[in-house]
Amino acid sequence: QILDHWFESEPLKATLATDAVIGAMASPHTPGSGYVLLHHVMGELEGRRGAWGYVAGGMGALSQAIAQAATARGAHIFAEKAVCHVLLGRDGKARGVALQDGTEVKSKLVLSNASPQITFLELLPQEQLPKDFVQRIRQLDTRSPVTKINVAVDRLPNFLAAPNARDGQPLPHHQCSIHLNCEGTQLLHQAYTEAAHGHPSSRPMIELCIPSALDPGLAPPGCHVVSLFTQYTPAVLAGGRSWDEPARNAYADTVFDCIEDYAPGFKASVIGRDILTPPDLERIFGLPGGNIFHGGMSLDQLYFARPAPSYSGYRSPIPGLYLCGSGAHPGGGVMGAAGRNAAQVAIKDFRHL
């Protein structure tokens, strides 16, 4: 309704609608999807409202920059050290964390940017939490439609709508987000409907980015890396089938066939691919259900209700334990708002210890 009010072009409306459903098991026609669109355009980058950007060196460079800023101020970072559980004192307050190797790290406060499910259902004894709170966390909608495909190619994709330059250098559209299978909102709705019935979309929504077009150091000369953010894929396939290797490859082939229609020669240029379905995203990155936001961005899971009513202020039922990741207000996105807000609350409490 929002897009119909402001725009007439169906391809333009459908392209904008992708930001209303990105990361969500929802259709552009799903009530509340308009907020997800707002969430993706309400910010700014270097003073430009609604702008997005690439991170030089890849997204890992952002994590490294944060780590360097922290260590420069005296922080100690333990990498590849899985947390086993949160340590609690006799008074029920958080007193640190225990690592899987048996090491205990004592502290007066604990901030968790793991998902609410991992933080409260796996790292804490359930009897220490209110029953209604535990029930709420268990019932969070974490369905994800996302399959991420990372691709290495030996040449720049050549699109029919905007052919490559003779010198093979990236053109402006190569340095942007390219949306495919978005000629109409009905296409997006059909893709969602198929996944809702347990079937990967036969014509998936594809957001294609070529980071190496802006950051040549990501690939050897003449080659490129292509990032494909695709929807819709259910976490569990129809009939209870899992995402085995044949299913994973069959879906990736469908995605590549679609890209081939827009950029002939794409499939022949592929020299490697990495396919991450919703179960893969959960297993590798700890994303519940593969959900990139740690939980749906629907109106019943936002603002005062994120992650649960009465606990949207970053403090948890356990004194001294704070939630600071995407599962906290205001939700997902590479913006650091939840972490900054949680840190301010924790610092305020720390001064009164």
TrEMBL record:
InterPro entries: Amino_oxidase, FAD/NAD-bd_sf. Keywords: FAD, Flavoprotein. Pfam families: Amino_oxidase (PF01593). Its main location: mitochondrion. The keyword Flavoprotein applies. One of its GO terms (cellular component) is mitochondrial matrix. Belongs to the carotenoid/retinoid oxidoreductase family. Interacts with COX5B; this interaction may contribute to localize PYROXD2 to the inner face of the inner mitochondrial membrane. Probable oxidoreductase that may play a role as regulator of mitochondrial function. This is Pyridine nucleotide-disulfide oxidoreductase domain-containing protein 2. It comes from Chloropsis cyanopogon. The lineage of its organism: Eukaryota, Metazoa, Chordata, Craniata, Vertebrata. The gene is Pyroxd2.
